[in-house]
């Protein structure tokens, strides 16, 4: 076999189907549905993009899916220099469009793969490439049929048991000498055929010998709705969740006044908190904690105290803005915890209302919002009732590649 750098395989990934058997989804056709943490096609492309034997990669998409594909591409972790072309009404026509695009690149071989087989692995790619390297013009990964096979009538009556010896289920990538399969595809298309369900059958039709290599049991095609949920479960089981915590601290001075606002609750008191806004020290600390989970700076970066528009502003504006930034980064807020450090006023009687305010501002469940309070045992500036401090912790789960 030739050394790796002299023998790379061009790749055609077909992704122009409508996924009708998998049913409708707001995410689009099945190749754009999320499994684990990103679209099916991003998983598939990454396997090829990170395989050292891969040459130029052509992705065949449906003209209506430009935006879906652009978003999916952002979720790839491997290299992203792909060519994109539009497919046709059948898989066969989509493959032909991909082969035509690849033919200009000078790649000697091609691997043709379904975008909806995201569990392809490097070992199988290696087996296919080795078969090509040993001189095969057409290589088909396949799995021996394990079930007993029946042929039925239209009325579902069993007509016969089909002997399964020698029967295999075809997978992809199906691999070819590019010139040979392109010529076969062109011929098939020119003679009015557009109904071949795989490329090996076009090779057979054109008289090319097809060599079978062992496929991979995991290399399933996501065809039905349940295939997608099973794939999602499988990936989610192994995924390390991207859970991030951020902390925030704030302190405001107590001055002459008639009450303080904490977590949006006005509590009558003989003093007030001084500040440019409503000085809600609790919400300020939590705003910083949220921003910290996605590296978005601090409250002062977003709402400079020098800006007159924030004079006397209710601090819920700041918190809701931080929550919006978190969501735009693909985050789900799972917990918000604030500790208030104050000698007075008493927080206990207002705790429930504060939690309800937090739940509403963050649009999360009440049991994900916690308020705690402590005195400072008469020590330091808090003990001398010169100010109130707050410490906050935010917990956010981020979904890789998902930006809302
Ligand atoms: N006109 C088509 C039809 C299919 N495919 C691609 O071929 C692969 C295998 O096809 P299949 O599982 O049959 O997908 P769909 O045609 O989308 O499914 P359905 O028949 O349920 O609509 C998929 O990656 C699909 O996107 C394609 O590129 N162009
Ligand atoms: C190419 C293929 O994946 C081999 O199993 C399969 O034939 C394509 O699926 P389709 O449902 O026939 O389009």
Automatic annotation (TrEMBL):
<comment type="similarity">
    <text>In the N-terminal section; belongs to the IspD/TarI cytidylyltransferase family. IspD subfamily.</text>
</comment>
<dbReference type="GO" id="GO:0050518">
    <property type="term" value="F:2-C-methyl-D-erythritol 4-phosphate cytidylyltransferase activity"/>
</dbReference>
<dbReference type="InterPro" id="IPR034683">
    <property type="entry name" value="IspD/TarI"/>
</dbReference>
<dbReference type="GO" id="GO:0046872">
    <property type="term" value="F:metal ion binding"/>
</dbReference>
<keyword id="KW-0456">Lyase</keyword>
<dbReference type="InterPro" id="IPR003526">
    <property type="entry name" value="MECDP_synthase"/>
</dbReference>
<comment type="pathway">
    <text>Isoprenoid biosynthesis; isopentenyl diphosphate biosynthesis via DXP pathway; isopentenyl diphosphate from 1-deoxy-D-xylulose 5-phosphate: step 2/6.</text>
</comment>
<dbReference type="InterPro" id="IPR018294">
    <property type="entry name" value="ISPD_synthase_CS"/>
</dbReference>
<feature type="region of interest" description="2-C-methyl-D-erythritol 2,4-cyclodiphosphate synthase">
    <location>
        <begin position="244"/>
        <end position="404"/>
    </location>
</feature>
<feature type="binding site">
    <location>
        <position position="250"/>
    </location>
    <ligand>
        <name>a divalent metal cation</name>
    </ligand>
</feature>
<comment type="similarity">
    <text>Belongs to the IspD/TarI cytidylyltransferase family. IspD subfamily.</text>
</comment>
<feature type="binding site">
    <location>
        <position position="381"/>
    </location>
    <ligand>
        <name>4-CDP-2-C-methyl-D-erythritol 2-phosphate</name>
    </ligand>
</feature>
<dbReference type="InterPro" id="IPR036571">
    <property type="entry name" value="MECDP_synthase_sf"/>
</dbReference>
<feature type="domain" description="2-C-methyl-D-erythritol 2,4-cyclodiphosphate synthase">
    <location>
        <begin position="244"/>
        <end position="396"/>
    </location>
</feature>
<feature type="region of interest" description="2-C-methyl-D-erythritol 4-phosphate cytidylyltransferase">
    <location>
        <begin position="1"/>
        <end position="243"/>
    </location>
</feature>
<keyword id="KW-0414">Isoprene biosynthesis</keyword>
<feature type="site" description="Transition state stabilizer">
    <location>
        <position position="21"/>
    </location>
</feature>
<feature type="binding site">
    <location>
        <begin position="298"/>
        <end position="300"/>
    </location>
    <ligand>
        <name>4-CDP-2-C-methyl-D-erythritol 2-phosphate</name>
    </ligand>
</feature>
<feature type="site" description="Positions MEP for the nucleophilic attack">
    <location>
        <position position="164"/>
    </location>
</feature>
<dbReference type="Pfam" id="PF01128">
    <property type="entry name" value="IspD"/>
</dbReference>
<keyword id="KW-0808">Transferase</keyword>
<keyword id="KW-0479">Metal-binding</keyword>
<feature type="binding site">
    <location>
        <begin position="374"/>
        <end position="377"/>
    </location>
    <ligand>
        <name>4-CDP-2-C-methyl-D-erythritol 2-phosphate</name>
    </ligand>
</feature>
<protein>
    <recommendedName>
        <fullName>Bifunctional enzyme IspD/IspF</fullName>
        <ecNumber>2.7.7.60</ecNumber>
        <ecNumber>4.6.1.12</ecNumber>
    </recommendedName>
</protein>
<keyword id="KW-0511">Multifunctional enzyme</keyword>
<feature type="site" description="Transition state stabilizer">
    <location>
        <position position="276"/>
    </location>
</feature>
<keyword id="KW-0548">Nucleotidyltransferase</keyword>
<dbReference type="GO" id="GO:0008685">
    <property type="term" value="F:2-C-methyl-D-erythritol 2,4-cyclodiphosphate synthase activity"/>
</dbReference>
<dbReference type="InterPro" id="IPR026596">
    <property type="entry name" value="IspD/F"/>
</dbReference>
<feature type="site" description="Transition state stabilizer">
    <location>
        <position position="375"/>
    </location>
</feature>
<feature type="binding site">
    <location>
        <position position="284"/>
    </location>
    <ligand>
        <name>a divalent metal cation</name>
    </ligand>
</feature>
<feature type="binding site">
    <location>
        <position position="384"/>
    </location>
    <ligand>
        <name>4-CDP-2-C-methyl-D-erythritol 2-phosphate</name>
    </ligand>
</feature>
<dbReference type="Pfam" id="PF02542">
    <property type="entry name" value="YgbB"/>
</dbReference>
<comment type="function">
    <text>Bifunctional enzyme that catalyzes the formation of 4-diphosphocytidyl-2-C-methyl-D-erythritol from CTP and 2-C-methyl-D-erythritol 4-phosphate (MEP) (IspD), and catalyzes the conversion of 4-diphosphocytidyl-2-C-methyl-D-erythritol 2-phosphate (CDP-ME2P) to 2-C-methyl-D-erythritol 2,4-cyclodiphosphate (ME-CPP) with a corresponding release of cytidine 5-monophosphate (CMP) (IspF).</text>
</comment>
<dbReference type="InterPro" id="IPR020555">
    <property type="entry name" value="MECDP_synthase_CS"/>
</dbReference>
<feature type="site" description="Transition state stabilizer">
    <location>
        <position position="30"/>
    </location>
</feature>
<dbReference type="GO" id="GO:0016114">
    <property type="term" value="P:terpenoid biosynthetic process"/>
</dbReference>
<feature type="binding site">
    <location>
        <begin position="250"/>
        <end position="252"/>
    </location>
    <ligand>
        <name>4-CDP-2-C-methyl-D-erythritol 2-phosphate</name>
    </ligand>
</feature>
<dbReference type="InterPro" id="IPR029044">
    <property type="entry name" value="Nucleotide-diphossugar_trans"/>
</dbReference>
<dbReference type="GO" id="GO:0019288">
    <property type="term" value="P:isopentenyl diphosphate biosynthetic process, methylerythritol 4-phosphate pathway"/>
</dbReference>
<feature type="binding site">
    <location>
        <position position="252"/>
    </location>
    <ligand>
        <name>a divalent metal cation</name>
    </ligand>
</feature>
<feature type="site" description="Positions MEP for the nucleophilic attack">
    <location>
        <position position="221"/>
    </location>
</feature>
